[in-house]
Amino acid sequence: MDVKDQVLETMKKAGKPLSAGEVSELSGLDRKEVDKAFKALKTEQKIESPIRCKWQPKA
Q1: Which SS3 state, helix, strand or coil, does residue 59 take?
Q2: How far apart are CA 2 and CA 53, in angstroms?
Q3: Quick check: 30 and 51 in contact, CB under 8 A?
Q4: Per-residue pLDDT for 58 more than 90?
Q5: In which region does residue 32 sit, left (phi positive, over 0), alpha (psi from -120 to 50) or beta (all else)?
Q6: Could you tell me the pTM of the whole model?
Q7: Domain 3-57: which topology?
Q8: What is the pLDDT of residues 2-55, one digit of tens each?
Q9: E strand map for 1-59
């Protein structure tokens, strides 16, 4: 499982919008890796931001 998959899985399990810091804490991944994954997931349009600085998987 790559970092992007781990980030998405963590977000799905949380069931609420999360910041990069929260994803890092919950998943145990390095914050820089989470930031890179967020950037890639935004480009791929797999996550959305319902609240400023918080992200969730697209439905």
Answers
A1: coil
A2: 23
A3: no
A4: yes
A5: alpha
A6: 0.90
A7: Arc Repressor Mutant, subunit A (1.10.10)
A8: 999 999 999 999 999 999 999 999 999 999 999 999 999 999 999 999 999 999
A9: 47-51, 54-57
